[in-house]
Amino acid sequence: MSAAKKTRAVASRKAAAAEAHLRPERELRAITSHIFRLAKSFDLPEVEVHVDEVIDALTRFANNTIHQHVAEHGLTVSLRVVVDGRTARVTTNRTDEDAFRGALESAASLAASQPKDAGLLPLPGEQKYRHVRRFASPTASLSAEARARAVKNACALAEGKGQVAAGIFSSGQSQSVLANARGLYAAYRQTQAEFSITMQQGSATSWAKANASDYRAFDPQQLAKTASEKAARAENPIELAPGRYTVILEPAAVLDLVGFLFYDFSATAVRDQRSCFSNRLGKQVLGRNITITDDVYHPEQLGAPFDGEGIPRERVVLVDQGIPRHLVYSRRSAKKAQTKPTGHGFALPNEYGEAPMNLVVEGGKTTLEEMIAGTDRGLLVTRLWYIREVDPYEKVMTGMTRDGLFLVEKGKVTQSVRNFRFNQSILQMLQNVESLGPSRRSTAEESFEMVVPSMKIKDFHFSEVTKF
Amino acid sequence: MWDYCGHSLDVARRRGATYADVRVMHFRQRDLTTKGGEVGTLGQSESIGLGIRVVVNGAWGFASTDQLTREGVAACAAQAVAIAKASALAKKEDVQLAPEGVYVDSWQGPCQKDPFEIPLEAQLDLLLKADAAMRAVKGVTLSETDMQFRKIDSWFASTAGSKIHQRRVHSGCGIVATSFKGDAIQKRSYPNSFGGQHILGGYELIEAMDLSKHAPLIAEEAVALHSAAQCPEIRTTLILGGSQLGLQIHESVGHPIELDRVLGQEANFAGTSFLTLDKLNHLRYASSIVNVVADARIAHGAALGTFAYDDEGVPAQCIDVIKDGEFRGYLSSRETAHLIGLQRSGGTMRTESWNRLPMIRMTNVSLLPGTWTPENLIADTDDGILMETNRSWSIDDRRYQFQFSTEIAWEIKGGKKGRMLKNPSYSGITTEFWNSCDAICNADHWVLWGTPNCGKGQPMQTMGTGHGAAPARFRNVKIGTAFSNE
């Protein structure tokens, strides 16, 4: 083998390795230990270090061909110092000695430049964590070729139906180590894969998407088939007048809306009086069939079992049979409220406090088909789009339906319908839920992944109609 | 940095790339916030790495790395080539790039006062004073302030021979007063909502904004909104303040003209566009007084969409988008230019960071100034509503139907600005709305607003864009739908 060939072979192997493997956890731990030693030499005994490594790849297609195909590999080191009642954070993706020294010096300087914070807590000590297993080796090693072949098959299905496919197939792995100088040490790694597809038939479109820790949990070709069949039904939409309709929201559409409540469950948001649950805790605000928890340990959830300060995440019942009962707390907001932290704090320093990131909406037993069969007149909604808050206290949201809106008449899907704009209070909506489907992990574009059911809801408010 | 660029291009070429370009980018960022008189976020970050884009077998591949060593960038280039070969498995046609010159250049954007050289104490003191001025107003339940600074160095090189270094400093600041009373939350922001104003420039922006001076007024307005009349549901004349009009341009002109959307490349995420190719030079987009350009040149102003070269090495340009009301041009790239008969890219390929692929993005999409003054505009309006400062925004995935709400509004009666209105909103269809524009204020009232948070692409990229706008008037607009129950 020539020298040039050898070089290429080594580079090739390294490229393959970079695509497939995270560093051993001990290397990340060694970075934290090294920074603690350096910090002592700077007389900075109170230091917290986050080391995060991400390997992601994404195959993107449109017009039945791959048009973007990317991969990234990065590691960041983020450290926080606490000095005399003051704190500051510095983050770098350089991992040499000079970078760490510079980061410590900058953090100390930033911290010293601010007024003393009477509410700042010392770093927490060692914690115990519940183990979660969310790393699937086959997903970590999924190749560009494998993703490309799956995409090719989906595009072939589209072409065979005279349709046009667009979407993504991504796979990746990540790990985080969080340690502080008081002995706290937390480590977590996960894989994640996602397939999303939009099928276009003429001017009609439909969509399907799945996301899981293990790519084998979903079938890209089945998702393509689902989107293809719905796109075929979506042609020649009729225009209906805006107004209040009974709607059947598929899980993605439920997620799109309910996900916007997440920060309202933050104790800091309630204290700041910008949560829709301000003055409403303990009251029958939602329907009795609505129970929402935050549960990172749910088998269909992803995410680390600790928060931005390394506090173990707890399962919290946020809404119990329509009554908002509990909030989530960081250490700081917990102290102010004289309660215990729930393990939902963001990395400090920040002004937001905390939020639940693993929402689970309790489901029911009514299948989507049964909801349709039991509806005399209503609309079946595939997904929602461009949702924004209109009224923060009544939690009125606006947005559009997208990629498949269908009229249901006398228990059957009869027509495709032009997309509507809605202006709808989520609180009112969750008072009007007539039936719920089984909960499952769902993914869309307007909120983060959640475990949610489909919902049949009366009097959903559509205010205007668009041109397609 | 040029060594890493050159070595990665060499590796890509040896492995079969017929074209490659590479970006080494170094970001330095500082974020400061306060809330209720206390420091919120206080942090600095830096990120440096390399991303390489290659064409192999007529298909694209991209890979990125933070391992800035000869071995690291070589492995990254090899991975990009392997990915491109995989892409070719599902290829329809070979990538075709519009011709472009070769440039060796270095450019630095304007920055009178380097924000990273200003003592942090002074920056925090400025924010805390503005924060205190808002809290001094009775009824304010939450006060928030923020500053952000970014220094971006980028080194671009291509197998064609271009080598371009650019340095840009972006600065931004804003304040928000919130008042919760009864069953309503009202808020006012200055100089704009969602982070304030952002420019290509330094600390001179922060000084010019004079946050403390404006803090009492917006705090008083936030409280006063509780007592204001509800904005009616009506069809009437609408006058939009400059910052809200900037966002209107962003959503209903800037996004629809992105050629990748038009061609279906964003169909799965950001959406497509009603501006199909047949509409170029054939659509009356707006009334004849409306002229919109996409201008990345420094001559247009120092904004978030200003640069000397885009991220595929094409010089900054000014593109006519709407000329005398007629639709004249898209935002294009080297790969898409030929599809609309252009000989050359419009120079709008931009990337969020070294680990992201450049894509078609807005530069500074601006409505050119008209001839009116705000005083004359109001005096000339018998019956209407003046709205200012965005509160929410939403538009469908083909960019036809939109709805915006703003923080505050005032009634206009008999040519005079009257009582304050709360919960204002308006909605419409893009081309109908722009065709109803009958007055635009002059250059004295034209501001190049910065939108720092434009999301697009998979994986998602956030980009800063610029939008020049002066207050303007629109006739027969649907008002108040967002708060209607019917």
The run of helices and strands of chain A is HHEEEHHHEEEHEHHEEEHEHEEEEHEEEE
What is the molecular shape of chain A? globular
Number of domains of chain A: 2
Total domains of chain B? 2
What would you say this structure looks like, in words?
The complex is a heterodimer of chains A (468) and B (486). Chain A is an alpha+beta fold and 468 residues long. In chain A, the strands form 4 sheets. Chain A has a 6-stranded antiparallel β-sheet with strand order 3-2-1-4-5-6. A 5-stranded mixed beta barrel of chain A has the order 7-12-13-15-19. Chain A starts with a helix and ends with a strand. In chain A, 55% of the residues are buried. Chain B folds into 2 domains: 226 residues, 2-Layer Sandwich (PmbA/TldD fold), CATH 3.30.2290; 254 residues, no CATH class. Chain B is globular. Chain B is an alpha+beta fold and 486 residues long. In chain B, strands 1, 2, 3, 4, 5, 6, 7 and 8 form an 8-stranded mixed β-sheet that branches. In chain B, strands 10-17-18-20-24 form a 5-stranded mixed β-barrel. A 4-stranded antiparallel β-sheet of chain B has the order 13-12-11-16. At the A-B interface, helix 1, strand 1, strand 2, strand 3 and helix 3 of A face strand 1, strand 2, strand 3, helix 2 and helix 3 of B. Strand 2 of chain A pairs parallel with strand 3 of chain B, so a sheet runs across the interface.
Secondary structure blueprint with pairings:
The complex is a heterodimer of chains A (468) and B (486).
Chain A: H1 3-20, H2 25-41, E1 47-62, E2 65-83, E3 86-92, H3 97-112, H4 137-140, H5 144-160, E4 164-180, E5 185-201, E6 204-212, H6 220-233, E7 243-249, H7 251-258, H8 267-271, E8 292-294, E9 316-320, E10 323-324, H9 331-337, E11 359-361, H10 368-373, E12 377-391, E13 396-409, E14 412-416, E15 420-425, H11 426-429, E16 433-436, E17 440-442, E18 450-452, E19 455-465
Parallel strand pairs in A: 7-12
Antiparallel strand pairs in A: 1-2, 1-4, 2-3, 4-5, 5-6, 7-19, 8-9, 8-11, 9-10, 12-13, 13-14, 13-15, 15-19, 16-19, 17-18
Helix pairs in contact in A: 5-6
Chain B: H1 2-14, E1 19-35, E2 38-56, E3 59-65, H2 70-87, E4 104-108, H3 120-135, E5 142-158, E6 163-181, E7 184-190, E8 197-200, H4 204-209, H5 211-224, E9 229-230, E10 234-240, H6 242-254, H7 259-262, E11 292-295, E12 318-323, E13 326-327, E14 349-350, E15 359-360, E16 365-367, H8 374-379, E17 383-395, E18 401-413, E19 416-422, E20 425-429, H9 430-435, E21 437-440, E22 447-456, E23 461-469, E24 472-479
Parallel strand pairs in B: 4-6, 9-19, 10-17
Antiparallel strand pairs in B: 1-2, 1-5, 2-3, 5-6, 6-7, 6-8, 10-24, 11-12, 11-16, 12-13, 14-15, 17-18, 18-19, 18-20, 20-24, 21-24, 22-23
